[in-house]
Amino acid sequence: MNSDSDFTFDYPVDATGETEAGNKRPRTEGNPDSRRSPIEQERVAQRKQPPQTSPPSTSAPTTPRVILPLPKQSNGTMALASARYDSGDFDGLPTAVGENPHKQFTRQGEPPVAPTNLAQLGIPDMQFPHAHVPTYRLLGNVDEEQIVRVRKIENPKVAIVIHGAGQDLIGASDLLIEKITKLLSDLEFPPLEGQQMSVDSAGAPATTLPSDPIRIYKALVRKPKRSNAFGQPWTWFADLGQNSERLRKWLLYQEVFPIAPTLSFSVHPLGDLIQPWTLMVLTGRDRHAVEDTPRARQEVAKEIKDYVWKDRDFTVSTAHQVELNWGLHDDPATLLKLVTDTIEVVCVTAELKTSRKEVPAYLVYVKPVTNDREEYLEWASKFVQAGAYWRGPCRLEVNKATVECKLCKDTSHCARECPLNVEGWKGTAVEDIYTTQELEARAAGTSTDAGELAGREWQQAKARRADQDPRPQKNAKKVQQTRRPKEGKGKGGDQRRR
Fold first, then answer.
1. What strands lie across the sheet with 394-398, from one edge to the other?
2. C-alpha dist (Å) from residue 57 to 50, 331, 439, 466
3. Given this model, what pLDDT does residue 204 score?
4. What's the CA gap between 331 and 329, in Å, rounded?
């Protein structure tokens, strides 16, 4: 330690003999407020001050609060349809029957300019029942890349559906494509207003054929399936060429072309069509499950309404779609009732999925609340989630059978009940696509027992596949014997241990 430093640790000695540290807090005496912290002193001072009178407010006067009494009972706006309406009241139902596309006819709207040589080409100048085939069915099982390429075609285009077509027809359709291409190319239209004819063609009939040749493209199968001869895809895509808008409009207006049993097809637009009205198919195992009487059909419709009317979430979502797409506005229960008022139950002939035998069934129509495919499927799934409905003691199973015409591809009837087969029909008929054995098997009663339905397959589809399959059949037992080891490792004793 440096001895020259003036710093020392010695405290000054008090006269009383007591030693105090220099940093010791001095004792306070007198006023007790001096012992309070500054914050506490400020609070005490504020409490001691007299209350201050606030100046008059210059702001605008506030609206007085009005307290209304609560209603004694609900006005019913949020009530379910099951609590407000009678599901068994069918007075004036079903509604919107005329809007059902499955019950309409061809040649709707203002007729376009028609060709002048229909009689020479054998095209009937008459009206036919309309086959409603939505876009998703036209493009079903088609290669996705081909769909993208077809949509990019800028020329007028249409979809062609051969009556009775399927995967079996794709491999042997070149001659049919040539016939349809020639038929469409031979259509002659009158000249446009103000169009001048050349001197060389003054004596010939005026035509307005497309400047480009018509091209028809076969659909590329995304997933081949030999077990279904009439399965998708069954759509061809026709590029009508430039300056062919008049041809496209007339083809869609005419729609049906029954030229001959070997040349019969329909034309459909490749655009956004409305969703089908066919909701589901109901079949029952009891012989009395499906009865074609007004009372029986109303009993089924009542069961369906009772099921969906009890779901609050479904009520709200349906009301939202109706307001958005139908342009109607009301409480959710009323809007749901307006949708279910379009339910129509009809008795048809369906085809069992397990055996493909024809059985009586109920087909349920309902007006779709949206044209968006994903939203429609989500909405329609509510009706299918029930799994089964009841009509008295009879259980009706949902979608155990299908309703699809193998001729026109509509989903409201089977091939034997196709409405296209009118008087004077010259196109493909059901006898042209089904064999006699198959027709007898499909019409062999109404029982759905698995034992009675087993072993009845589509003979014609098998014959077609047999002609196309060059591979010889192999005996499974012989193949197994050839693959069995020969060194004593199979059945019997091991030769190596003898």
1. 388-391, 394-398, 278-283, 358-365, 344-352, 401-402
2. 21, 46, 95, 100
3. 47
4. 7
Structure tokens at 407: 């001729």
CA torsion sign for 268, 271, 273, 276 is positive
CA-angle at 288, arms to 282 and 289, nearest 5°: 20
Q: Residue 98 has what pLDDT?
A: 94
Please list, residue by residue across 325-358, b when 16 or more beta carbons sit within 10 angstroms of its beta carbon and e when fewer do.
eeeeeebbbbbbbbbbbbbbbbbbbbbbeebbbb
Residue 129 φ then ψ, to 5°: -60, 140
Q: Which of 297, 292, 288, 210 is nearest to 246 (CA)?
A: 210
Beta partners for 348? Answer: 361
What was the pLDDT predicted at 143? 95
Q: What is the mean pLDDT of each run of 10 residues along the chain (498 residues)?
A: 47 49 53 67 70 56 59 59 95 96 94 94 94 92 95 95 87 86 95 59 48 89 83 94 94 95 92 88 95 96 97 96 96 96 97 90 97 94 96 96 94 93 88 68 48 36 47 53 55 49
Alpha carbons 442 and 456: distance in angstroms, whole number: 9
How do 344-352 and 358-365 pair as beta strands? Answer: antiparallel
> What SS3 string covers 254-314?
HCEEEEECCEEEEEECCCCCCCCCEEEEEECCCCCCCCCCHHHHHHHHHHHHHHHHCCHHH
DSSP string of 476-496, one letter each residue: HHHHHHHHS-SSS-SSS--GG
422 φ, ψ to 5°?
A: -85, 175
Q: Is 182 left (phi over 0), alpha (psi -120 to 50) or beta?
A: alpha
Q: Is 267 exposed, middle or buried (0-12, 13-18, 19+ CB in 10 A)?
A: buried
Q: Distance between CA atoms of 338 and 328, rounded to whole angstroms?
A: 10
Per-residue confidence (pLDDT) for residue 450, from 0 to 100: 39
Q: If you count DSSP H runs as helices and E runs as strands, how many of each does the chain have, helices first?
A: 17, 11
Going by C-alpha positions, the residue among 365, 362, 309 that lies closest to residue 342 is 365
